[in-house]
């Protein structure tokens, strides 16, 4: 089973907030995994922040 992408109109306020955080960050877009994780906004927020930290906040990126 595939999880379908949500359009902005289908997102609730919390999902839009997480999407906006990703889009307004250094990436400038919602990466593929976040489009799935956005179905659980709390997971999406934590995963997005962890990914951004690892990529831009450490020598690992």
Quick summary:
With 61 residues, this protein is mostly helical. The protein is 56% helix and 0% strand.
Provide a descriptive summary of the structure in words.
The chain is an all-alpha fold. It has one domain. Helix content is 56%, strand content 0%. It has helices at residues 13-24, 32-37, 41-56. Helix 1 packs parallel to helix 3 (41-56). It is globular, with a radius of gyration of 12 Å. The termini are far apart.
Oligomer: single chain
Got a strand count?
A: 0
Secondary-structure class:
mainly alpha
Fraction in beta strands: under 5%
Please tell me the overall pLDDT: 89
Number of domains: 1
Distance between the termini: 32 Å
The topology string of helices and strands comes to: HHH
The main sheet comes to: none
Shape call: globular
* Secondary structure: helix percent: 55-70%
Rounded radius of gyration (Å) = 12 Å
| Number of helical stretches of at least 4 residues | 3
Provide the low-confidence segments as ranges: none
Secondary structure blueprint with pairings:
Layout: H1 13-24, H2 32-37, H3 41-56
Structural features:
61 residues, mainly alpha, 3 helices, 56% helix, globular
């Amino acid at each position: 089973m595939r999880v379908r992408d949500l359009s902005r109109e289908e997102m609730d306020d919390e999902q839009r907030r997480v999407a906006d955080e990703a889009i307004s960050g250094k990436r400038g877009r919602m990466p593929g995994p976040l489009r799935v994780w956005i179905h659980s906004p709390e997971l999406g927020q934590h995963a997005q922040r962890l990914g951004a930290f690892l990529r831009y906040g450490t020598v690992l990126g």
